[in-house]
Structure formats: structure tokens, C-alpha cells
Predict the structure.
Amino acid sequence: MTQEKLLSLRNLTLEVAHRGVEVVKDVSFDLEAGEIFGIVGESGSGKSLATRALISLLPPAIRKIAGQVIYKGRDITSMSEADLRRMRGAEIGLVFQEPMTSLNPSMTIGRQLEEGLTLHTNDTPAERRKKILAMLERVGIREPERALSAYPHEFSGGMRQRIMLASVMLLKPALLIADEPTTALDAVIQRDVMELMVELTKAEGTAVLLISHDLPMVARYTSRIVVMEKGAIVEAGTTEQILETPQHAYTRKLLSSLPIRGEVRTIDATSAPMVSAHDIVVDYPGRKSLLKKGVPKRALHGVSIDIHEGEVVALVGGSGSGKTTLGRTIAGLVKETEGEILFKGRKRDADWQDYRLNCQMVFQDPYSSLDPRMTILALVEEALRLVPGIDRAAKTKRAYETLEEVGLGPEYAPRYPHELSGGQRQRVAIARAIARRPRFLIADEPVSALDVTVRAQVLTLFSDLQKRYGFSCLFISHDLGVVEQVADRVVVMQDGRIIEQGDRDTIFDTPKEAYTRRLLSAIPALDLNETGGVKLKWRLEN
Amino acid sequence: MKHFTLNGLIGGVLVAILLTVAAIGLIWTPYDPMKLSFTARLAAPSAAHWLGTDEFGRDVASRLMIGARASVWIGCLTVGFAAIVGTLIGMISGYARGWIDGVIMAINNALLAFPGILLALGLLAVFGANQYGIIFALGIAYTPSMARVVRGAVLSLREREFIEASKIMGNSEIYTMLRHILPNCLAPITVLSTSMFGWAILSESALSFLGLGVPPPAPTWGNMLAAGRPFIEQAVWLGLFPGLCIALTLLGINLLGDALRDKLDPRMRGLK
């Protein structure tokens, strides 16, 4: 093929100004018109900075020291600001990760969509309106007329990302840069948005530069991929090559970090369950106004769940399914409106002290779950504060031992959380939860905020600890890949109800409910081959 | 990473000079600040009297030193009062929420609606015009702003996961407040306290200027400024030096406060 290159990046090198640290090193790749191209890398790999350089939108602290960005034969890096402005939007569109912050909250959807058209086209207002309505309809917004005068907060995250996509595609750009476009969305919505993006861009002949840490997701939609690590491209090739015959050690590491199905364990389900929740109903108080009494919003509609000794039960579902509410209710952070919770066969509230000692929790966000003003040692020691029967010295000793167990040596003890990486912080959070030797652990999306390779390490650590101490666990996650690796049993929730539950293998291999099938179709099944590569199979597709 | 800015340094030096002068004033002054001398009335600045003398022949430099002590003392106690009471009220209000928060904030907002100096004037009328009256009045006038800032910090902190983690560990509410919430509020409290220190010194001067502060003959910058006013044409130094002291002190405190805010408030980081 002697097709004209749409965009080529030549030897791009970026550094942090004044400090001389190179954050992007000698990066080159070509993009052809109409193709979908992927950049895969973890945080700190420089993938976002490299793409920002494509449209000369680098943060002020970053300086280009070498390289060219050639777009349709012109070097973008030497263009004037006015030329750049004409090109951004009209020629190159951008979709960012955060649908919550990339739309202006104080402007109606209609006005935001109109902005681009007013700037880059000579359409009359009537034409603009027609185009906008047609585009909103195409991205699947119900009642597009009404959406025009609505504000961003009236839409869910997935809908906002659709609107974002609509606003970019209205101008029919030749290139769409999508930087982690679906990372903030749950699996099912993620897939819908991606399918829509692919469909729209294919119809308009737009090339897509898809940037993500999620290798399977990128692999699903792209024809070629580059893998970046620490600012440099370590491997480039067709998607198939990268997946099936990876050459570089880092690529192999990324692939081997993808979750695979864990072993089948037999759980004694005949004995009385460790934790048992019956017909839990939770109402959140509705918004009250001066004259109107608030109508409570029901988050859980009579949910029952049993967790046996030593069993890991995964609670899965999309956002708004009530899975987090159920976890927090069992933990005692949310008061149930109706229903009862039993612990070791007795009412949970009858011996609250005992329950508090034996039920611990690991939270999703390791940046917010550790008190920033306490040292790592103090954080773990605090978990032992109320444990009866051991003295101070023994508590300190236990804290050090627990840190050791999660892979943090004594040199970490005097540090503060901000000095640690995300993965290390989550290790501290796990250490804090298991220091008391609880019988029951609730883990709310414990690895969602972590990078792929770190996530694999933390999951392995979690499984090891679970085997060693044999605690029961309620594992809440929207990521079915992770669930497949750690869970013994899977409970699927939708709209505050449990719709399906069963052994992990039963749920993953022969799901009954349509919703479960949709969840599963969003994640790949992996076949490892002997070269360290994988073959991705998308489930339930024909 | 830079540890201080030029502005912060200037502010720090000015505040340090103030504190040093106030401390020296405790043990030594060039002349007895109360001693009258009819031979040296309204003397211009000279080698003997660096900053001149006032209408009773008292040494202005000595009186300014004693005045600095009064300013620092009043500033410290006022800020201490507002910080402790305001933090307590703010924490209770932010942590309890619900109707307790509603009642406390209603009173707080009503107090905030009065200009601080007006509120202090009213309170002084009750407590009487003396040093401790001023401290009490200004302290009460400043408490609402402190309470509001602390409440805001607590409201956002209590939604963080580490507060829930503390609950999950079974810690009591009091323990959680003292161990997790209070230390994380210290940054905004410190920053506000610094600017309050400046406001307190200014308000004290203003009240003394109006004759409602520390009564003469005890010197404060405010009542020296007031006393110098009738002689402004014959002896400009009587008004000039106390005025300069007030202006430089406030400048120093504001610069230092800005530097502290940039350093302590993570939201301000990375903006430069």
C-alpha cells in the first residue's frame, strides 16, 4: 500500500523543563488515514504526553527538545497558534478520560455542541441545529430535543461520554485522539461506548488513536499497537503480533499480568454460613424541599446473600447496581432499612464488638483510604489499637510482621502515604485490614485504581493471604476478569437486586441471564501460548 | 523544590523583627517609656532620641517597643481564643451535621453578618475598654470565620475513605475526630490564624485610635497614633512611626501568611 500517511511522529523527545528528565524518549510512529491505532502503557509511560504533543497542548512544565509531528505533510510543532486553533477540533478531535470534567457544567449540551460548529463551519443556526440533533440521535441520546437544553449533570457518565463523542464527531475530523476514553466507565457501558466510537469513525473515515492501559480493550479494536514503557516505545507491530508473539520482556509482563481463571476450590457449603444477610432493603432519604417530603430512593430491594467460611464471593454489576451499597451495609457503614445480618449464626448487632474485630474492609482508592498525616507503621498499628489481650510491644511487632507479609520491609514503616506508589499504598491498606486477623473481609474494588502489572501483584498477594489465613471475603468489583481469577462464587446484581448467582465456572461458562452475558462479553478469555503470548477470545460472540 | 519564596522570606524577616523588638521591650528600653520630661517636649529625632519625643517629652522609640509587646500579646491571645473555640465549634458542626449543624451555622452566619470591628465595639461596651476586654471582644468577633473554615474542612474530610476505615476499625467518634480529622485540618487553621493575627493587630490599633482600646498612659501603636494626630504639623514623627510600625507588621504577616498557604495547602501546589 502506498497510502499517504495521515500523521507521523518522528523521534519525539520531551523533557521536564529545567530538570532535564526525559519523559518521552525518541518516539516515532505513523498513522494511516482511517485506521485505528493503539498506544498501550501504564501510568508514567508517557503515552498521554506524547499524544498531547500531537496537538501542541503540552503542559507548561514539559518542553519538546527534539522531533517532528507531521500531519498531512505539515509540521505541527512549528505551526503558529492561529493555525493550530484552526486545526484542533476541525481536523483532529479529542476525547478525554473524565466525562465528568470534560464538559462545561454551566453550559447546556446544545450550546457546547454548537461551539465547534460556529468556530469551524459557516452553517446557519438552523443547519447547526439539524446537524446536532442528527448526531445526538446517532450516539443514542433519547429525546435529543430535550437534551439540547439540558446540562451535563443530568446525564450519567456513559451518556456524557457519548455526548463528548458527538461533539467531536460533529466536525468530522480526520483524526480522533481518544485518551483512556472509557476507563471511568463500567464494563458494559465501556463496551457500548467503544462500539459506538468505532462505528461512527468508520462511517466518517476518521482515523483513531486509542490510548489506554487496557491491552485487551485496545487489542479488540485496533489493527496496530505500540507498547510504551517509561517514555519509550518498547515494541510496535500489528495487534496479532504483539499479542501472540511478543518480543519484549515488558510486553510479556503486561500479557502475563492479565487476569486468568484461578483454580477451583471446594468450599464447605453445608455448615452454617460465616456471614448471612437476609432480605436487606436500603432506602436512601430523598431530597427534601420546603413543602414536599422527600421520597426515599430504594437502593436495595430485599437482597439475601450467604458467605461461607473461607469462601471468596464476588459481587459484580455495573455502576448503580447496588453492589457497593450491599457491601457497606454488611460492613455496618450504612444502616439497613429492613432485613437482618447474621455473623457466625448470631445477629450481627448482638455482639458488635466481636463483629468489629472480625470484619474489616479494603477500600477502592488507596489515595483516600489512608490518613495522609500518619506514618505507615502508625496506620497499621492503629488497626490493632482495640484488639484485647496483646500489649503495646506485641502490637508494634505484629505491625512490622504484617507489613513484611504484604511485601513492605521495615524501611517503609516511618514513611508517609504520599511517599508511596498506588500499589504500595494498597498493600498498606491490606496490611491494615488483615493485621487483626479478621474472619471476614470486605474488599470494595480493591484493585480498580491500580495499573495492570501492579494489579496482578496485589491480586496474587491477596489470594496468598486469603489462603494462609482462610478468611471469608466479599469481593466487590465491576471487572469480571479480576473476579474470574479470585472468586469461588459469583453473585450478579442489577438495579438493587440479585439476578443470578452460582459457582464461578457456572456463571462464566453458562450464564443464564442476558445481563450477565452482556457483562461477560466485555472481557476476553485468554489462551496462553508457550512463547509468552496470548490469544484473545471474546466470549459469547458469534 | 524551592523551600521559600522571596515574599515569604521578607514576611518572615519582618515578623521576626517585630517579635524580637517586642521581646527586647520586655527587659530593656532606651528610656523609661512613662517618664515625662518637659525639657525635651516634641523633640525631633536625634542621636539621643532616635525617633523623637512626644508632647510630654516621652521617648517615642521606647514607647513603640512597649507598644509592640502589647500588639503581639493581644494578637496572640485573640488568635488563640478564636482558633481554639472556632475549631471546636467548627468540628462539632461539621461532624454532627443535621440540626446541630443547622443551629450552630445559623448563629455563626448571623455573627459573620456584622463587620468584625462593629461587633468588637459592641462587645467592648459590655466588657469595658481594657486589654483583656479587647482580647475577648476581638476573639469572639473572629471565632465565626474560624468555625466556618474548620467546618468546611471537616465536611470534606469526613467523606474521605480513611474516616470510614477508622469507623470500620471500631474507633469511637471522639477518637476519629482527634486522631484523623483534627490533624488534617491544621493547614487551613494555621493559614487563617496567621492572617487573623494581622487583623487583630490592626483592629486593636483602630480601637485604641478611637479611644476604646488600652487606655493611656500605657502605650499602644493605636493610641500613640491617636495622640500624635493634633501635632501632625509640628511633629510628624509622632504619627509617622506608629503608622509605619502597623503597616510594616501587617505587610510582613500577610506575606508570611501567603507563603504558608502556598506551602501547606496542597491545592495551591503546582500552580507556579
Observations:
- Chain B touches chain A through 15 residues (CB under 8 Å).
- Residues 58 and 101 of chain B are 53 Å apart (CA to CA).
- Confidence is low (pLDDT under 50) at residues 267-272 of chain B.
